[in-house]
Amino acid sequence: MLQVSFQPFPTLQTKQCLLRQITPEDAAAILFLRSDKSIMRYLDQHPMNSLEEARIFIAGIEENLRNNRGITWGISFHDNPRLIGKVGFWRLIKEHYRAEIGYTLHPGLWNKGIMSEVLSEVIRYGFEKLGLHSIEANVNPNNAGSIRLLRKQGFVREAYFKENYYFNGAFLDSEIYSLLAPK
């Protein structure tokens, strides 16, 4: 079984970004990322409505980290600590050496190559440092931008589930993309 420890927190860097631990001071940025209509359009979850909800969300990230069940990095630029997004292996499936990746970026920064750069580093970390065998992403089939991003990283569609997710009074489809560790 996969053995992981996120203590001390593994800060990562890319050419443009610092991937750092999310703190309670990031609550306002998390609230924005989890309430903006353009971001939430394909997350199929209810948007946050308060800083208290954002603080609870951050506490969940911290608990996942403490218990080595997952890791989420806050994304900021090297020259500005303001949180612009988040990325992480929010769910580790240790017995199968697999993790589910999730990511969000401020919409004003979409299509600039930032998330592609960040994902490359997080994927590298997952395979080289954590020892993952595979990484999966669960995507709303209408989220063409996210699917393009995953394919650019080498992910392939592994499954298409019809009406497997119930949200807001409707059954929705989902796609699973995966990437195997390089051999």
Characterise the protein shown here.
Helix content is 29%, strand content 36%. By secondary structure, it is an alpha+beta fold. It has a single domain, classed as 3-Layer(aba) Sandwich (Aminopeptidase), CATH 3.40.630. Strands 1-2-3-4-5-6-8-7 form an eight-stranded mixed β-sheet, with helices on both faces. Helix 1 packs across helix 3. It is globular, with a radius of gyration of 16 Å. The model has no long low-confidence stretch (mean pLDDT 97).
Summary tags:
183 residues, alpha+beta, Aminopeptidase, 8-stranded mixed beta sheet
Write the layout of secondary structure elements.
Blueprint lengths: L11 E2 L3 E5 L5 H7 L3 H4 L10 H16 L4 E7 L2 E14 L4 E8 L8 H17 L3 E6 L4 H9 L3 E12 L2 E11 L3
Parallel strand pairs: 5-6
Antiparallel strand pairs: 1-2, 2-3, 3-4, 4-5, 6-8, 7-8
Oligomeric composition of the shown chains: single chain
- State Rg: 16 Å
Strand content: 35-45%
Classify the secondary structure makeup into a structural class.
alpha+beta
**Biggest beta sheet attributes:** 8 strands, mixed
Summed up, the helix count is: 5
Spans with pLDDT under 50 lasting ≥5 residues? none
Q: Strand order across the biggest sheet?
A: 1-2-3-4-5-6-8-7
| H-E order | EEHHHEEEHEHEE
* Average pLDDT for all residues: 97
CATH architecture label name: 3-Layer(aba) Sandwich
The CATH homologous superfamily is called Gcn5-related N-acetyltransferase (GNAT)
Number of discrete domains: 1
Q: Which outline best applies?
A: globular
For this structure, what is the CATH class? Alpha Beta
| Helix residue percentage | 25-40%
CATH topology type: Aminopeptidase
Number of strands: 8
First and last CA, distance? 19 Å
